[in-house]
Amino acid sequence: MIKTRSISTKIILFCLVAVNSITYAQQPNDCQYAVTVCGSSSFSLDVNGVGTQELNGSNTCSSQENNSIWLEVNIAEAGTLAFTLTPSSSSITEDYDFFIFGPNVSCGSLGQAIRCSTTNPAAANQGNNLTGLNSTDPDPDEGPGADGDSFVSAINASAGDSYFIVIDRPIGNSPFSIEWTGTATFPDAPSNTLTTSAISTSLPNIDVCDDLAPYDDNIREFDFTQLSQDIINGESDVVVSYHYSESDANISLDPINEIFNNTSSNEIIYIRVENTTTGCYIINDVTISVTALTNFNAASDYEICDDDLDGDDQNGISTFNFGIKTQEIHDGITGVNYDITYYLSETNAETATDPLPINYTNTAPTPTEIFVRIQDLDSGCIGTTSFNINVAPKPIANDVSLLQCDEDGIPEGFTTFNITEIADEITGGIPDTTVEYYLSQLDAENQQNEINGSSFENFFNPQIIYTRVIHNFTNCVNFSEVSLMVSTTSSNNAALAVCDTDGTEDGFTEFNLTDANNDILIGAPAGLDLYYYETYEDALLETNPLSTTFTNTTAYNQTIYGRVENANACYGISEIALTVFELPNIETVLETQYCLNFSPETLTLSGGIIDDLPNNYYYSWSTGEDTSTIEINAPGIYTVRVTNTNGCFKDRTITVSPSNIATVTNIEVIDATQNNTVSVLVSGEGDYEYALDDDNGPYQDSNVFNNVQPGLYTVYIRDKNNCGTTDALVSVIGFPKFFTPNSDDTNDFWQVKGISALFQADSSILIFDRYGKLIKELDPLSAGWDGTFNGKIMPTSDYWFKVKLQDERTFTGHFSLKR
């Protein structure tokens, strides 16, 4: 049915810019997607872009599409078609153009525009940036640029005519509005009685639960068949289509079925209500919201301990009360009306097939996953969750017996037990278990009055102790009995003594405790076990057993304990006295010398005892002697083993090196120089030192003497090992530089030094005056020249000498006579 409206109806078009985040499948910037203008039409479209360029050569305004929107106008009642387009921005640079085709043309054959305006308002110096059709302007077209005033003449339209109006925005980015100012009218758009008010385009929200498996994806089926009938409301010329976007709804593109599944938990569905006679339509929308049933508590895993209700407490079969899980699922949630059922598979939970009984006995090994279906009986919403069930095994709890020794000296059958030592026997060695000990079964079951199992003193013999065995992770519990009995049998004491031979004489050393086994077990039955402990308490309670190799912790003397057992039952506790004997305190190494030149005299060697009497020890010499000292007269290596009365010994090594008085093999003299040297060469086994001209020294290690003044000397060679001193004469030739014959007994004669009856006795010595006249031929063994010639005193002057030594060396030189 076609309805009319007043000419003053305004269409407001929101032109969205490129940065807008909304996108659409198609846009009304092409003729085929033109928006139909009806009596109450309003639009919200993205008109950015040009789509297909359709204005080339089709208008006299010399323009084309830049950012365009196509409108289709159908005339209901004849009159003038006129409008005013007002940009939302009043800036003079905001430029809108338009083009009108018709009447009654098709998109494929538009022909030439019958009206167009491409005037630029800024270029034309307009006072505003409005454009449109009016009845006062005579021109059908204006523009481009500065041409015109942006308005062209109105169109006289007949009823039934249709026109395409292209709105284009070459410059700017603001939206615009259109006010229809002519006398022609348009068909009215259809209405929807389901909208909440006359101005609303939205239907009431549809809020539903996810009732389609899986129930947690917020996807379900919607059936809009009845909604379509309610919107059409019996009208024969109205059709309804549903779309995922408003743009698709505006251009009637990609409709979805009336029966469909939502694609997200919150989604807007756009509804196009169209009059098939006029083509007019409205766009409504409805928001659908799908939520999963989550108003419940997640169920925790359900673990129970195995029991013997089926006759076997180790087979992993037990009964679970799912009522506990039901309470857990809705605990703290008030006002709900839930039906909660349990299943062995997710499929069964979704289809409500084969629910499990509320008291469920598993038939297969656990863990097993149990699936829960939760249905809200008021809303019909359905949710699912799951948890694992597990039957934890009961811990092993064996009945055992423990026999302990009565070693306190009073054989009354009471002693101290360490019951914890048999914990592995009670639990079968299963890890992660705790054993508690009680005086009664009732205390064990109620976990009260626990006793200290590591140090329990019995008061009956025998006595029953009750255990509570707890698995540390599952907290499953089992019970057993421990029979305590006290034995009055005993074992032998023993002693171990060793010498302190570990290299550090501090009273601590290593014992091989098995060396005491025979002494402890002598007379005992075969098959007993023996363990060693540092303290009596440790032995009694069987804590901290020692290794068979043990280093004492108290110096020199310590008592430890041996526990004799018969299949873990105490047979007796023995004392083992440990003694560490000291070694002889001796000087273990000595180096000395034997003077070969003293042979056959002897040298005394001793055992080297320190701070004690030698007679307190035994000796074994490498010479075969057994006295505290021996006499030797030859170099060599001598050893002696010194043993004390405890049988502990040390070995002493004496190295006797040979030594001897020196034998002079040569004396090398470099004389008649500025630096006279004497080198003494010797042979012998000794270690020697040297002195010149004085047997009392000082002695030096070097055999070379430097800067020796001319003259006759004795060289002494002394053995450092006190084997004796050897001496030898040596001559150092030299020539005095002057002499003073004034009878003062100092330098009264000039003579070559170093000459004697033993050295250079056959030498020739001639003295000349400065003119070469022979003054004196000296006897080498005389006192020397007295400074006279033929009884005449020679004056102070330089005189010359020529010396030819016995060893054929010849020297010449001069000296001064001073008076």
CATH class annotation of the largest domain: Mainly Beta
Please summarize the sheet with the most strands: 6 strands, mixed
State the helical fraction: under 10%
Radius of gyration: 67 Å
Number of helices: 8
Structural class: mainly beta
Q: Any low-confidence stretches, pLDDT <50, length ≥5?
A: 1-25
The CATH topology of the largest domain turns out to be: Jelly Rolls
Work out the strand percent. 35-45%
Which outline best applies?
Answer: flat
Question: For the largest beta sheet, what order do the strands appear in spatially?
Answer: 3-1-14-6-9-11
How many structural domains are formed by the residues? 8
> What is the mean predicted local confidence, pLDDT?
89
Question: CA-to-CA gap between the ends?
Answer: 173 Å
CATH architecture of the largest domain: Sandwich
| Count of strand segments | 57
